[in-house]
Amino acid sequence: MNRYGVFNRGLRRLPGLACFMGGEIVAARFGTPSDLTATLGWGRRRHARRARRVARDLGVPFLCLEDGFLRSLGLGHVDPPLSVVVDDLGIYYDATAPSRLEQLVATPHSHAQRERADRLVASWQFGRLSKYNHARDVEPPLASYVLVVDQTEGDASIGCGLADGERFALMLEAALDEHPGTPVLLKVHPDVVAGRRRGHFDTLSAGAAARVTVIAGESHPAMLLQRAEAVYAVTSQMGFEALLWNKPVRVFGMPFYAGWGLTADHLSRPERRSRCTVAATDLVHAALIEYPRYRDPETGSRCEAERVADWLALQRRMRSRFPERIRAVGFSRWKKPTVRAFFGGSTVRFATSASAGDGPVAVWGRRDAGAATDVVRLEDGFLRSVGLGADLVRPVSWVMDRRGIYYDPRAESDLEHLLQHETFDEALIARAQSLRRRIVATGVTKYNVGRSGWQRPPGAAHVVLVPGQVESDASIACGTRNIATNHDLLMTVRQTNPGAYVVYKPHPDVVA
């Protein structure tokens, strides 16, 4: 097995590092480990210097790691990466030296590889993806504009990309001069919005301020890029993403996507990038498929770019289902973390009551939502947990219904609406059939407690199962007319099936 030496605690603790590398991670705390395959370091940080020195002394490769271009759902301090790049020559953002990415871009790609790159670009656009994917799309404040992209002060990609802080002022000036009749949107970096870093545009001149609109809130870049007439960047990855949206890109540094004839470059490209002509699909295949290594967000194993793209696109769709702000009314303290988790993508505020002006309100089941008109009703899902809710076992599924709730037939529910009005394609039907077979084969139920030792009695020709319920359950109050107790249910079963062997299974909450 390959053994990789790591010389700082932060990199050792990176979730999925062994998966990305496909080998053992050796913590080099005090001495130098022997028989290493290679040493690892993160970017151009000072901790990587020791790893480089040890690699040189041992005569093994030094591998430089960085976040991939399709990184994660949340920002770096929140979510671990789903992709990293591993470079044995340099690192993609350092234009002063060759990198493995440069060689991959310059390598001819087959027709099949280019088609795959085109499909990935289509998935990127459909999923509205970016490096980070937690923020919502925001409607641009202008119908027509040029987009200028800021970066964080001191970002390693700026200096390594042959640029400096003055390039940002030059970029903004060029955007204003080259598009005299068009407004300019200035996009601030998410870390600047979050208050963790500084940007390059703390103040604007009076002339610039008259034409520049600053996008300072936390907004996803997809719609900004999609609707822009042109994009201006120094070394930001958003310049690359603009190419994925087929936008003209003007670059004032030398990032990995510049110097190939795909962008309008302010700087002269390195000689090594001028030796070949590449298509956009060559760049995409190299940067999104060949160069990064991906980790499946659910299994933790290695996977392909398409799997991560599909998963992130799904998360984006799910996170935008509900309004940006939700007031949750009447939830106990132990349920509050679960409420926040299931409303991922929305900001949840908890309260004891709601009023008509509160906007969207979340409540449990059929509880009173006051005068609120936009209500989301929550309930346990049909595959809930291993353990009971009464024992405070956290659920792995809830239903979230904006029409009613599935157990109350007095009003339409989202489930009823789906069954009556939605069209399910063959792939979804096949998935449902597969899930049904798996549930039956594994014996999975809602709570998954108790033992499965029951055997059918010998000689019993007709066996009837009667599942008991908690008699105060809301589904009985909403969904029954004449039979409302377990005893009445059993008596009715006996009367209608006089010769049957009746098996009564009490509800696990009652047993507990």
Write the layout of secondary structure elements.
Elements: E1 3-6, H1 9-12, H2 17-21, E2 24-27, E3 38-42, H3 47-58, E4 62-67, E5 83-87, H4 100-106, H5 111-127, E6 146-149, H6 156-160, H7 166-178, E7 184-187, H8 190-193, H9 206-209, E8 212-215, H10 221-227, E9 231-233, H11 237-244, E10 249-251, E11 264-265, H12 280-290, E12 292-295, E13 302-303, H13 305-319, E14 325-329, H14 336-342, E15 347-351, E16 361-364, E17 375-380, E18 398-401, H15 414-421, H16 426-442, E19 463-467, H17 474-479, H18 486-496, E20 501-505, H19 508-511
Helix pairs in contact: 4-12, 5-12, 5-13
Quick structural overview:
The chain has helices at residues 9-12, 17-21, 47-58, 100-106, 111-127, 156-160, 166-178, 190-193, 206-209, 221-227, 237-244, 280-290, 305-319, 336-342, 414-421, 426-442, 474-479, 486-496, 508-511; strands at residues 3-6, 24-27, 38-42, 62-67, 83-87, 146-149, 184-187, 212-215, 231-233, 249-251, 264-265, 292-295, 302-303, 325-329, 347-351, 361-364, 375-380, 398-401, 463-467, 501-505.
